[in-house]
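Subject: Interface between my chains keeps coming out wrong

I've been trying for a while to get a sensible model of this assembly. When I model each chain on its own everything looks fine, but I need the whole thing in one frame so I can look at the contacts. Pasting all components below, labels as-is. Any help appreciated, I'm running out of ideas.
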Amino acid sequence: MNSIKRRFKRTTLESVIFTTVNTIIMLIVIVVMLYPFWNTVAVSLNNPQDTLKGGITLFPRKFSTYNYETVFGNRLLVTAAVNSVLRTVLSTILGVVVSAMIAYVLSRPEFLWRKFATRYFLVTMYVSAGLIPNYFLIRDLGLINNFLVYILPGMVSVFNVIVVRSYIRSLPSSLFEAAFIDGVGHFRCFLMIVLPCCKPVLATIALWCAVGAWNSWFDTFIYCSSKESLTTLQYEMMKMLAASMASSRSQDAIYSAGQTASNLVTPVSMRAAITVVAALPILMVYPFLQKYFVKGVMIGSVKE
Amino acid sequence: MYRVRIIISLLITASLILLTAACVRLESRSIDGSVTAQPSNGIPGNGMKRDEETGLMPMPDADKPITFRIFVRDPGAVPSKSNPVLKKITELTGVTIEYEFLVGDLAQKQGVMVASEDYPDAIFAEAAKFIDAGAFIPLEDKLPNYPNLYEHYSPFLADMTANDGHLYVLEIYDVVHNAAPVFEANGPGFFIQKAVLEDAGYPIPRTLDEYFALIENYKAKYPEIDGVKTIGFEILCDGWRDFCLRNPPQHLMGAGNDGDAYVDPVTYEASLYQISDTAKNYYRKLNEAYHKGLIEAETFTQNYDQYLARLSSGAVLGFFDQGWNFIAASNVLRTEGKHNRTYVAVPIANPGVRDSYLDAPNGTIPGNNGIGITKKCKDPDRLLAFYDWLLQKEVQDYLQWGIEGKDYIRLNNNGKVYTASRREIQNDEARKRDLTGHVLWNYSPKRQGLYENGEPCGPSDSEDEYLMSLTDYDREFLKNYNIKYPAQLLSPPVKRPLYYPLWAMALDEGSAARVAVNKMVETCRKYYPRMILSSPDEFDTLWEEFVTEIQKGNPQPYLDEINQRIAQIMKR
Amino acid sequence: MTVLKSKLNMFMMSLQRKLKPYLAQKSLFFMIIPWMIFTFIFSYLPLTGWIMAFQNFRPGKGYWRSPFVGFDQFKFLFSEPGFWRSFRNTLGMSTMNLIFSFVFAIGFALLLNEVKNTYFKRTVQTISYLPHFLSWIIVCGLISSILSSSDGAFNNLLMWLGIIDRPILWLGEPKYFWWIVAFANVWKETGWNSIIYLAAMSSIDPALYEACEIDGGSRYRKMWHITLPGIRQTILVLLIMNLGWILNAGFEVQYLFGRGVVMDVSETIDIFVLKYGITLGNYSLATAAGIFKSVISIIMIVTTNYLSGKIEEERLF
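Reply #2:
Try treating it as a single job with all components included. I did that and got this:
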């Protein structure tokens, strides 16, 4: 009864206008934001030679699955996919747990090193040694051609720590006080209170970690390029893209000048196909995380 | 005659005996001068039989498998593991080559490799960086042990020797003993649509004025081509590809594709063509063309993909570019049967100046465009022996042409052409990579041009093969000019001075010369489009401003450096 | 003997007294010290590489054999007019990016939060973050064709609306460049950036909304007076952290759109370093520029943190 009454009350003219305008804005957002990806899919399904002529917008002009055949013809694809999934899962789990743990400690007002430790971590966000010193470090740690190089260097993300910390701070302090009075230690408090209460923010940083790990290829390029068994999906994709550029650039292209080359992969088509192939798996993770941060405000907080 | 033959045979026998006695190698010379190595233990045919399919002689160590990893500076795709030619080569030599092609940024990759000294067995990249870091092993003492390699490189040993007196790099491009004819301008040129020439009754434009007049007339006559608005002249300005904007003046001055300076052919004094009168006239001409509507302003903002899209629409009448840069567009036009919309290079130069777009081999090579064997190499001698083996004529033929009868046919005049089925493979990037020896051939020391008897080393050197590939339209087009191939519209290839080209001189990193040339290029990049787009009466002011800006950036360290290098080389 | 013993005793006692608060928090220390060591290894140790900024570093020679040149790299940077121009461009573009990306992401999150239909809401959100998965080269290619002056959709639209009478060369006019970069960022990242605000909104106490409703507050008022203040802390923290990256305006968009005609406004510090540093193999210059950026970053966050503490009583550290 109560809720029906409330709904009636809400249906004022102002509210109707608001809803209408908001819906229109959201529809515009859908069109504007969907277009680039939609276009990419259309290009990926178009004949690569025809794509060169430009002008593909919403639908393929000359339908072809050749781009995908090329991508899926890569013999390292399975190895690469397994590695990518592994590194993504491990990086995400570790990244979330570690960030949350550090964030919890830094959020405790009584922690003696709070100021020092916060600054200590914060500084690392703004300094970077550059490619070569980092390479030396990785080499000296024996992480070249080692799967751990995908996990360890990015494990502590200070940005994520700070984001989680400010979320923890916004939780009611009574939550912790009650626990401490009950004699719960910090570690258990972290496990039993912080982790469950921070689901929305942890889901967010999990998404960041997962997408970051999934999308990175540079570490494979620099640290693991000489070991095929450690290749990653994005790196294989970059390799295929590079190869598609080669056909038009190499010095031996002279011969094809008088000829009509067939089955050429072009960089534009290749880029579209690899974008779709690489993005789809990670996009599928999204709905699982989405439920933690997109839900009615009411439902979201009532559960605690 | 008879006497001569006896003497020769005696000499050969004597040398053979000497060689066997010295227990070096038994050799059999073939027409091209390459040497087929026999088992070095002195017992010929020690269980070694010619391969039945290919007729090739295996290497002595064929039963000891070894894998070499080679880094290649180009992006590319690794041939499939089931490539029959590469499998056969491995079977005959025991050697497997694993290529790592470039992904991402070359400078980063090289920096990391050099800094960490994590080298593969061999590297084909910017040699100067690796030599500087002591990554390569000197080869000058080893080379004479490998007769084919030695014979192949002996005319170029001076070019291949680095400043420290050692030889590190086995050049893989342009090591040409006898040049094959140039069929098409694959390098720089003013290109024009064949239809424009056809429509005007097959003239040969020689000056900028003639060139733009042709374009203007055609555009006036046909404001639309296949429903697309006709574009007179395109200028690609995207990133490093903006040589299309910056390079033309040096070609108008009659220089080849030299680099960022003009070198006087008599005094060998370098100067900046970027601020020459020719340049001023050229950009004024473009300014004029812009105001006549022949150039669209968009050409200065579009990217490479958009440029290719324009070209492949067939609506662009002319542009300055390098042949390899727009092959993709020509390909689309050909696929769609628009043969009259494809392009041909024409000999545009300053009035009274002979055009020189085509390079003839000048007997020199850059000396840094090849493979270096690193100090981490498992077995440098084995790799060199492998390359030596590859240089045999029979092996080169096998890699480039395939098997006689099946893949290619020998013609009477020493010519060779592919069979139809093989040509199809050759035109298909993926099948060429996975079914032929192309990748191995391309990234190894190799023979290019013609053998002494006029036989083409590879299909790209074969006149017969080129003529086979022409379409009916092209044949007709060439007939009207009374020439055999399109490059004959241009002046014959020019033999360049020894220093040539400037762009291959590796300037020291971070040096004043390098900073200077960088700044100069940036200034050009910024001012040229502005001048072309400006109103005609502003042009002169802008030009003055541009020249002042160039001088302010102080290009002198660059000119000094290259002048010194040129002098050094020309002293040889 | 006894004196010594009592002294030792006293020392032990004072030590115990001093250590006591630490021991009381030993679990907190256990939870953080391993990660501090970890961070030291992965973030602080490689900083020894900063030594390169004072050398003429050659990768083949390593740190110890490369010649030292003092402050030459910095001198080159600071005396180069191109560097200061790129400094200005970087500041301009990243300030615009920062403002636009914050306003759009927060605005979008607020509006999305007001969508009541969960299914619609999820759909909009999923779609909004799709562009994040496209590379810049794809997005810039699309922008370039949309803004094209020959038959580009944007020019056509404006001409149809009668706003302009002939196509504008958007990418060739320096005055539009920063706006195009800012909107490119908005297009690609708004959905992605809004996720964190949506997460923050879910921690707002529902009692607040109910109270507002009882007072007869409109939805607009709820949005403005409850939701926005509810995520204020998140906004501030992100803002301060991002201000530290004020000199990271990125380089991809600028590089992809940066033709000669707009070079004066397109070149950022990263591009400058790329041109004069990496492509020339000059790692020392790149390192020097990196140090310069770090110094500016730290000044920025210390200042903003201080200001934020004064004005909003919210500090990052």
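Reply #3:
Confirming on my end. Residues 81-113 of chain C form the longest helix (33 residues).
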